[in-house]
Amino acid sequence: MAGSEGPLKGVKVLDLSRILAGPTCTQLLGDLGANVIKIENPASGGDDTRQWGPPYVEDAQGSRSDLSAYFMSANRNKKSVAIDITTPEGQAEIKRLASHADILIENFKPGGLAKYGLDYATLSPEFPSLVYCSISGYGQTGPNASKPGYDLMAQGYGGIMSLTGDPEGAPMKVGVGIADVMCGMYACVGILAALRHRDQTGEGQQIDLALVDSQVAWLINEGVNYLTSGNVPQRRGNGHPNIVPYDVYETSDGHVILAVGNDGQFRRFCDFIGRPELADDPRFATNPARLESRDALNAVLRPAVQAYDTATVIAELEDRKVPVGPVRTLDQVFASDQVAARQMQIAMQAAPGSVQLIGNPLKLSRTPVTYRAAPPEFGADTQAVLNAKNPFED
Question: Is residue 2 pLDDT above 70, yes or no?
């Protein structure tokens, strides 16, 4: 990891997390220049997601590595160190690493590290400047604190599944582990805030972050809609609770997304489909009226849009400055010139060979993100780190 650069250059992160929320956070910190040491359990073969495949990276001989695609999605710019924290020797090594670290992040069950002397209450008197981030399913307090936390459970408990899916179908989770990912993002924000406080005062602190709390936080407008009205929101498929038409519509050869955000855009949309009178119909003339008459309006719009092919709808509405877009599959996404221009697909050289990864979306003009090390094989850096006088040195 030579040549570490970025706004967090010199920041040292001891990562005791696994799966997705914590690793998402520490990968982002690593992309921004932090030196991250990832601790993995030798008894289990490391982070659980190493076994969450296929697909896996294979070497030139076709042998499978422990680099699953899932693991690689959240573990670049890290060193992998195998330490058994259940042993006195392992606990001593973690404390030695913590003595050098600015940040420690973990996602054990609340109280799970206390029996090893690695919990915040035990470490903070010895390392008072340490920023200690604890991620759990329900948080360190509350009646559910002892329950395990998984992304799917958080999406169910926190309400997002009740809002997602076909109105006539079952509640549906989001297609990726978004509760984990967003929890990792909140963790990163909290850590950077705590780090600034530490730099100003010398005082560390614990960040108590729950999957369910973060999922409730990003209910956003639907959550506040309920708190304001007392009405429980219902699933609307791809429809928007406050804007119509704002949905996915079938074309003659696929689908398009319409996002008509104001009455002027609606009038121009009606002109395109050859129904200008709809913009003057009292049922549809304003967005509040369209909300009230959602079903009646869609009964007209869906067959009208379906009369055109996707390319025509997009071209004509873009020309009229009406927000419209395609529904792309991942092969189309990663083949697009936009993804290439924004460097959202990157290649890195891992131990078994070249790997393709998703790029970081942050574009900083002065301190850009860097991709210094591919996701590591399990325990690849154990001896180098444990034998080093300063284990966080590149």
Answer: no
pLDDT at residue number 61: 86
Average pLDDT, integer, range 2-26: 90
Q: Are residues 44 and 79 in the same domain?
A: yes
Per-residue model confidence (pLDDT) at position 1: 42
Mean pLDDT, residues 228-248 taken together:
94
Residue 393 pLDDT: 85
State the Cα angle at 299 between 296 and 305, rounded to 5°.
135
Q: Are residues 28 and 86 in the same domain?
A: yes
Q: Give the C-alpha separation, 240 to 152, whole Å.
A: 23
Do 348 and 264 belong to one domain? no
Residue 239 placed within a domain: no
Domain encompassing residue 301: 255-326
Which residue in this structure is represented by tokens 């809002």? 163
**pLDDT tens profile 308-323:** 999 999 999 999 999 9
Q: Could you tell me if 279 and 267 are in contact, meaning their C-beta atoms sit under 8 angstroms apart?
A: yes
Domain tally, the chain:
2
**Contact (CB, 8 A) for 180 and 215:** no
- Dist. CA 182–CA 201, nearest whole Å: 29
Residue that is last in its domain, among 326, 347, 375: 326
**C-beta separation of 22 from 96 below 8 A:** no
Bridge partners of 111, per DSSP, are none
Structural domain contains residue 233? no
Q: Which residues are catalytic?
A: 180
Q: Do both 84 and 146 map to the same domain?
A: yes
Please tell me whether residues 342 and 318 are part of one structural domain.
no
Residue 207 token pair: 């960040």
Dihedral, CA of residue 245, residue 246, residue 252 and residue 253, to nearest 10: 170
Same domain, 134 and 277: no
Of 383, 255, 362, 236, the residue nearest 308 (C-alpha): 255
18 neighbors 70 (Cβ within 8 angstroms): no
26-37: average pLDDT: 98
CA angle 190, 375, 198 (to 5 degrees): 25
> Mapping DSSP to helix (H, G, I), strand (E, B) and coil, where does residue 258 land?
strand
- Provide the 10 A C-beta neighbour count for residue 300: 16
203 and 128 Cβ atoms separated by less than 8 Å: yes
Helix (H, G, I), strand (E, B) or coil at 326: strand
Q: Which residues contact 304 (CB under 8 A, 6 or more apart)?
A: 273, 274, 275
